[in-house]
Each structure stands twice: as structure tokens, then as C-alpha cells.
Amino acid sequence: MPVITYREAIKSAMAEEMERDDRVVVMGEDIGLYGGTHLVTDGLLDRFGPKRVMDTPIAEGGFTGAAIGMAMAGMRPIVEMMTWNFSFQAADQIIQNAAKIRYFSGGQASVPLVIRGPNGGGVQLSAQHTHSLEGFYGHFPGLKVVAPATPYDAHGMMIEAIRDPDPVLILEAGALYGTKGDVPEEEYTVPFGKSRIAREGTDITLIGYGRQVNLLLKTAEKLASNEGVDAEVIDLRSIRPFDTETIVDSVKKTNRAVVIEEQWRWFSVASEVAAHLQEHAFDYLDAPVERVSGAEVPAPYARNLEIAAFPGEDDIIDAVNRVLYRRS
Amino acid sequence: MTTSLPDRERLLDAYTRMVEIRTFEDAAGKNFADGLVPGFVHLYAGEEAVAVGICSHLTDDDFITSTHRGHGHCIAKGVDIHGMVAELMGKSTGVCHGKGGSMHIADVDKGMLGANGIVGAGLPLACGAALTAKIRGNGAVSVSFFGDGASNQGTFHEALNLAAIWKLPVIFVCENNGYAEATPASYAVSVGDIANRAAAYDIPGIIVDGLDFFSVYEAAGAAVDRARSGQGPTLIEAKTYRFYGHFQGDTITYRTDEEVSRYRDRDPITGLRTFLVDHDLATSGELDAIDKKVNEALARSWDDAKAAPWPAVEDALTNVYVSY
Fold first, then answer.
1. CA of B65 to nearest chain A CA: how many angstroms apart?
2. Which helix (H) or strand (E) segment is B235 a member of?
3. Contact residues, A window 182-241, toward B, CB-based 8 Å cutoff
4. How far apart are CA A188 and CA A206, in angstroms?
5. Is residue B321 part of a domain?
6. Which of A67, A69, A105 sits opposite B126 (nearest CB)?
7. Sign of the torsion formed by the C-alpha atoms of B24, B29, B34 and B37
């Protein structure tokens, strides 16, 4: 099986679908001639031409709204948000138009639109260029929100998103663009609303998505070798639709859970996961569900401050020990 | 006007549409006051010549986006009036099955991409529909209706720039009725003529008399031809006036009765009627018959809507996604 980067996995998925379906077009800032600020679209302009790969002005609200209009008129646009941080400029179009037009038109219109781009922090871009917006966008009915953690999922979810009849937001882990993994050559999709057990274990369930999955896997190995704790790691993959069953089944087995996220804790994905567990697995829990989240501050700049503000291995191990009642 | 005077049939059709809009709006206002129509209702009465003058040049394959004051655009684009009445009442027989209401009437088959309750939110959608037409090379155009207030939103400027650089087949129609809710355009807009903002995007900006069907019709014809032939977008500013307030229930403290009656004296429907009679294109009797027919049809629509069932409660949860 070919081993390719997360970045290449996304690009090859877009190229395959553009080849298959001439309604699929890509638009965004510097995605054509320049190849994309993160090189995710590099080469697509040469291959598909300027009618299919469109550089836009810096006008997130304008071009995102135009993509919504295209989707309503029968196209399958993919919008690259240079980073999700800039999507606030387009949030009105995403929330007020893309998410709602199907509903308020009584089911007449549909918006088969994909918006994708890097999300999350960890590379010292500081306050305005560091957000994890899963909880924010996951809040709105009408949107689908996914966060792939591996090249395999990034490829399969990208294809799934392009074929999906509803607006799909792909919050890519920007820090993972260069990471490599197996991506089959044959066509496949990764369906939304189905989580993945990334590591099987019996003692505790660690739940995360995106960049945190790798951290959870690394921490799980450390817990196994240093602490004798056999942790199960679940990659949520999809924020909306949400797979309650997989996390509940895991907790029925382990009776304990820690949820990790980069975003702020208040009204967050981890808070939602904790609520689902207490609603659906209350009798199986031997300890309160712990949330390990980003500090309640805008993202700091200095390396040591940034590390302090985001969840790390020690934070996870501390939470695991608390949930296992091993230390105070 | 001399070069592009529409034929008699088209003029009578335009007259009928304008009367339909006026009759619809007068009844909507009354039924809102009587508690039959909930929510917010923004009436288009007074601006009929704009929607009809523009949409007379469009087919079902062309797209429009609309505003919170969208009933006139819908009727001009051919959306079923019967279903619109029911939609205003929130009935299951409404064009959106009671899920959208006054501010969200849409009819995709008619190219009506939706009224929009967010000021300026429709302009980018129109660019996208126009971009689709351009990619497909099918000659379709799109029209975005919006008000003087929207011309101060970022989306207006982003959309005009996009349409200009991509030479999109789109016509931006600014209905300048003088007030953004209660704030006068003379205060809130940096230019006396919003059409002048077109210069910033190097596209034509045309001012028309929005109370005169022919003034709108002629400019729209040129703009639509320009768009269909690949020459790009046009901004049309229609100087118009709303006979009612911003919404029903508006205390209208911001304009004088004298101002309102000055504009009502220039009623666009009366203007078209006088033209038709003076030019022997129709008799008063023929036009009276049209008025009567429209009135009776709309009265039936209201009666039917009153009798129609509410949406099934379980439908509150449908149509969020195509599949989930």
C-alpha cells in the first residue's frame, strides 16, 4: 500500500473526484498559481485548468457565499479556507446560508459544498491564527463537521465530503500535513458518523480527534509501559454527525474515560462527549469523565507559553490517574 | 424607451404582475394587523416597477437572490402566489411548507434562490449562480436585489469585485428606497448615488427611476444583454420608495407624511396604467378587469390558506440535511 503524506492524501482525493465529476471545482486564496499556502492544491491548476481551479481575492465571505450559490445552482465546489481562523469572515455565509437554506426552503434547495483547511495550533502562530473550531461549527444543525487524524481518513473523508449532498466542513490538522501513512490506491470512502478505535485497551477510554489522536496513542504506550495501564484510544473522526455508540461501548468495557481536545473547554466537543457518556453510560462509569482542554486564554506566542496552554502528555497522564483514583 | 418598448402582451403581463404584488402586499399588511400573519413582514408596495421591470427580461433558467423585502421579487420571478400566501401564514401548503415564512420564500425551479433575512447576504450567492452559468456556458444570468443599506455591507463590495474580476453574468439591482430601516441613506451612504460605487469596480453603474417601469425595463434590458453576451456585470441603482414602513408595526418617525404622499402621487402602477391607456394599448375597462381578476384570485388564496392545515409537527425535524 502506498505511503503518502496527509497533504497528498487530501490532494489526491480532490483530483480523483475532479476527474470523476466535472461539477467539482476548487476555489480559494492562492490555491492555483501559487499551489496553496500549504501546498495542498499544488499542481491542480496545471491539471484541471482555471475553470476548475480558481484563485480568489482575499474575500472569505464573498467567495464562500459564491460557492454556496454555485452549490445551489448544481455545482460541487470545494472551498479552501487558507486557515479556519479566517472563516469568521465567512461565518455569516456558512451559518446563515449554507446551514439553513435547505431547511427554510422546505427541502427544495441543497448545498453540496465542501469547505476545508487547516485548523488548530501548536506552531506558534499566536492568538488570531490559532483556533480549533469543531465545537463552534459543530453547534449548528445543517452543517457536517469532520476532523481526520490520518492520511487514510483525510483521503477517504475528502471523497465522502465531495459526494455528500450537504455542506461539509473538514477541519484538517494543519500540524499533520507532512505526516505519512498508508493510503490505498483503490477507491474508498470513510463514512461520516463512525468513530475509529485507534488502540484497543481495557482499563480506560481516551477519546480525541485530529492532531490529539497521535498524542493519545503515544501517551497510551507510555501508560502501558510505565504505569501498567491498558488504555483504549478512540478517534472520533466526525464531530457532526456524532457516533455515540462507539464511545459508549468502549466505556461499558473500561468504565472510565478521559476526553482530550485542543479547544477551549466551555461548550466544547469534550463537554459534549462527557454529556453523552453520562446520558448513555451512567451506570457503567466508575469515575467522572475528565476533560483535558486548552487553557481559557487566547493562544500565546512564546513556545513555553504555548506548550503550557495546550494539552500535553503530562496533562493526560494526570487526568488518567485521577480517573483511576491512583493519585490525588 | 423608444428602442426597447415592450409589446402589448408583455406590458399587460407587467401590469398584471405589478397589481399582483400590490394586492398581495396590501392584504399581507392587513392580515398581519389582524394576527393571521406572524413574525416580521416587510412590504414591497411602491417598488413594484423595479422587480417587474428587471424580471421581465428573465426566464426560469435565470437566477435571482432577494431580500427581507422579497415578496415582489418572488411574484415577478413567477413564484406561485397561492403558495406564497400560505407560506406567510405558515401553512403546510406554503411554497416552503411553512418552514421559511415571509423572509425565506424560495422556489428553486423558478430560479428564485431565496429571500434572505440577512442584509447583503444574497449578493455572493448570485455571484456563484452566475459563475455556474459562466462555467456551463448556458447563457443564464443572475440578478441580486438588495437595498441601500446592503450597499454598506462588506458582501456588496466583495461581490462586485468578484463579479468584475471574473466578468460574471450578474446584474446587481440596488433598490434605494431612501432608508435602511430608519436610517436615511443620506446619512449612512457615503455617496449621493450608489451607482457611483460601480466605478470602484470598473463596471457600469446606471441610475434608473424606480417608480417608472420603463426606466427600469430599459436599463435592465441592456444589463441583461450585456451579461448574456459575456461582457460582465452591471450595477443598477433604482431610486424608489416604500409606501409602507420598514416592517409592519414600524412607527415611521423618520419620514414625513408629506414625503410619503409625494411618492404615492407617483405610484408606479398608476404610471403604467396611464401610459397604457394614453397610448391605446389598453382601455380602463380592460385594466379594471385585470385588477378585479387579481383581487379575486388573491382573495381565494387567502381563503384557501386559512383553511389549509398546519405542517405536521414531526416536520419540524425534517429537511435539515439531505442525508444524515
1. 9
2. strand B234-239
3. 193, 241
4. 27
5. no
6. A69
7. positive
The verdict on B98 touching A (C-beta cutoff 8 Å) is yes
Helical ranges in A105-262 per DSSP H: 134-138, 151-163, 211-222, 244-254
Q: Give the pLDDT of residue A122.
A: 86
Q: First vs last Cα of chain A: how many Å apart?
A: 46
Q: Is B318 among the domain residues? A: no
H helices within B34-79, ranges in order? 48-55, 71-76
CATH class of A196-323: alpha beta
Q: Note the pTM of the prediction, 2 decimals.
A: 0.96
Residue A328 has pLDDT above 70, yes or no: no
Amino acid making up residue A309:
A
Whether residues B131 and A110 touch (CB distance < 8 A) is answered with no
What ipTM was predicted for this assembly? 0.95
Provide the domain limits for residue B243.
Answer: 8-310
The C-alpha cell at A296 is 481559557
Per-residue cell: A219: 501517551
Q: B154 and A61 in contact by Cβ < 8 A?
A: yes
Residues B124 and A62: beta-carbon distance below 8 Å: yes
Please, is A304 exposed, middle or buried when counting C-beta atoms within 10 Å of its C-beta (0-12, 13-18, 19+)? exposed
pLDDT at site B4: 64
B3 has a pLDDT exceeding 70: no
Distance of alpha carbon B193 from alpha carbon B185, whole angstroms: 10
C-alpha cell recorded at residue B231: 461582457
Contacts of A163 in chain B (CB under 8 A): none
Indicate which CATH number applies to the domain containing B150.
3.40.50.970
Contact A281, A249 (CB under 8 A): no
Rounded to 10 degrees, the C-alpha dihedral B60/B61/B67/B71 comes to 0
Mean pLDDT of B35-44: 95
Closest among B27, B61, B67, B7 to B246, alpha carbons compared: B67
At the fourth CATH level, which superfamily is domain A3-182? Thiamin diphosphate (ThDP)-binding fold, Pyr/PP domains (3.40.50.970)
Write out pLDDT tens, residues B149-202. 999 999 999 999 999 999 999 999 999 999 999 999 999 999 999 999 999 999
> Residue A261 catalytic?
no
- A327 — pLDDT class (breaks 50, 70, 90): low
A166 touches chain B (CB under 8 A): yes
